[in-house]
Amino acid sequence: MNYIPHTELEKKQMLKVIGVSGVDDLFKHIPKQLRPKSFNIPEGKSEFEVVEYLKLLSRKNATDLTDFVGGGFYDHYIPAAVDALAGRSEFYTAYTPYQPECSQGWLQAIYEYQTVICELTGLDVSNASLYDGGTALYEAAMMAIRLTGRKKIIVDSGVSLIYRTMLYAYTSNLSIEFVETPVVHGQACREDIYKHLDDKSAAVIVQNPNFFGAVDDFSDIVERVHKCGALAIASVYPVSLGMLKTPGEMGMDIATGEGQSLGIPLSFGGPYLGFIAVKKEHMRQLPGRIVGATVDKDNKRGFVLTLQAREQHIRRERATSNICSNEALCALRALIYTSLLGKAGFAELARLNYQKAEFAKATLDKVSGVKVKRSAPTFNEFTVCLPKNADEVVCKMINKGFACGFPLGRFYKGLDNYLLVAVTEKRTKEEIVQFANSLEAALCS
Amino acid sequence: MIIPEDLLYTREHEWAKIDGDRAIMGITDFAQSSLGDITFIDLPKPGAKVEQSKWCATVESVKAASDVYAPLSGEVLKANTELTNHPELVNKSAYETGWFAEIKCSDLGEKNKLMNSAQYKEYVQGLSK
User: Fold this and answer.
1) How far is the C-alpha of A45 from the C-alpha of A41, rounded, in Å?
2) What is the pLDDT of residues A350-409, one digit of tens each?
């Protein structure tokens, strides 16, 4: 690839136009100590040399570990058809449709994706997708603030710390009061939530299953929340909805979640997929794009962007959100993935995850020194207490070929010996037994 | 274009019908016909405080969202919830069934900043020239 830099003359001309004496001046707002000392860029290399170098670099990644790590992102099998279909150039090379109605194929795909999300969550209206589970939760919180005109949000600490951090970072310049309530015996503490719930509360946010893997039925909380005139928001793991009570069935106003598990490969930093679905009565405050179905003048079915007056290209500073894009390609993958599984297949997927995790719990329980936490039911992820620091155990297990779980001490104070273990449908019985044996060995050494 | 004589008007095309310290408000016939088919109205909520010439409601037509400003300051007593399911009432009858809200006025002196029907008629005619 050719790289053609600006000539010195061009640079001088540009700097003159903006009234700056040198390129360094453009960076003067960044403190010196925060700037890189050097870029350490070697002399020019050939394409071949660069490719070889990157290949070597990539070998530093461990790609063959048997994966028991979850924490919000899961190692599910992705059927080959997902790559084949989503990789078609009609989809893969198309940028966001600025004249959306010209792209009927895309709009149909997004419309069907929205339908899938509504069916999974048991709610009425989904948007065309958001960036990831964390930004989706932020948008849900802002919806609650707009709908209630209140500024206090109660967040159960069973909600992923990643999401909570994003929530606080996004809203750091707004005067929103966040109250975190503790997890007791693995579950949301009702007593504490009710203590803080009042006529100033905009929403209560919970997660199912929560970060410890515990499954809960939040119907009782939802009822209390509604009595206070607040909204109930749940961040959910979509695969679990193949067998668990849906947010809709619990009476939730808004459901959000990370859609990575629906046919999107694990990768450091994404791109992933945020989904959000709401009750119909809240749809005017739903952020982002929404695709609707209609008929044209010849009475043929067609698709349009609908409710656009909420969006910033029309409503400007009072738009429901400044999001003006969506994760169309990832949403398409989720649509293809769920369509390939079908309703029965999706339920079976959930069952497999649950049963394999239960088998893993029983197997790990037999490892001496390991205690599986059983204070609450779980789906495909659970917490174990180790006799040693979980971080150290994780390091030892990598040498034995296992990514053995997420050390909870990283997110929760005082839980240094606790490990979060996820078991998806990909894990075989043999792998689970080997995992238990290796863990036993790792704990002895 | 209908411009009833007993109402007061703003330059932003809202109308107010004052009765004692209360005022009913809405948007004018000129406003509804310029907007086209109205699909949704975000009404002021009862109990909300509104301020003259400040935002109090939003009207959505198919591809536009327009702000509606309060003709008078005060507290919202009632909103026309019929409009939630039947926003087209504003197109059909901007001054009767298409009213937006009833306000308890906090400063009736603000009346002086509004136009009477003759002034508003002249103002609208000026706009279309």
Assistant:
1) 10
2) 999 999 999 999 999 999 999 999 999 999 999 999 999 999 999 999 999 999 999 999
Asked if A130 contacts A326 with a C-beta cutoff of 8 angstroms, the reply is yes
How far apart are the C-alpha atoms of A291 and A282, rounded to whole Å? 16
pLDDT tens profile B68-101: 999 999 999 999 999 999 999 999 999 999 999 9
Alpha carbons B111 and B72: distance in angstroms, whole number:
7
As a whole number of angstroms, the distance between CA A121 and CA A117 comes to 6
Query: CB distance from A315 to chain B under 8 Å?
Result: yes
Residues A285-338 have pLDDT tens digits of 999 999 999 999 999 999 999 888 778 777 777 788 877 778 899 999 999 999
Say if pTM beats, i.e. exceeds, 0.80.
Answer: yes
| Residues of chain B with C-beta less than 8 angstroms from the C-beta of A284 | 40, 42
Count of beta carbons in the 10 Å neighbourhood of residue A377:
17
In angstroms, the CA A426 to CA A264 distance is 15
A314:B63 CB<8 A: yes
Chain A environment of B61 (Cβ under 8 Å): 309
Amino acid, single-letter form, for residue A256: T
Contacts of B65 in chain A (CB under 8 A): 309-310, 314-315
Q: What distances in angstroms separate CA A309 from CA A1, A292, A319, one per listed residue?
A: 43, 14, 8
Q: Which of B39, B42, B64 sits opposite A314 (nearest CB)?
A: B64
Which residue numbers of B have CB closer than 8 Å to A's CBs? 39-40, 42, 45, 58, 60-61, 63-65, 67
Q: What is the pLDDT of residue A2?
A: 58
Q: How many CA atoms lie within 13 A of A157 on its CB side?
A: 14
Find out whether B18 and B73 touch, Cβ atoms under 8 Å.
no
Please report the sign of the dihedral spanned by the C-alpha atoms of residue A410, residue A414, residue A419, residue A422.
negative
Strands A183-184 and A187-188: antiparallel
Distances (CA, A) of B17 to A360, B40, B95, B112: 73, 23, 9, 14
- How many other CB atoms are there within 10 angstroms of residue A368's CB atom? 8
Q: How far is A314 from chain B (nearest CA, A)?
A: 6
Per the CB < 8 A criterion, the answer to whether A324 and A290 are in contact is no
Cβ of residue A308 closer than 8 Å to a chain B Cβ? yes
The amino acid present at A271, given as its one-letter code, is P
Which residues of chain A carry a pLDDT beneath 50? 1
A179, burial (CB in 10 Å: exposed 0-12, middle 13-18, buried 19+):
middle
Cα–Cα distance for residue pair B28/A208, rounded to 1 Å: 50
Q: In what order do the strands lie in the sheet with B49-50?
A: B8-9, B14-19, B22-27, B101-105, B74-79, B49-50
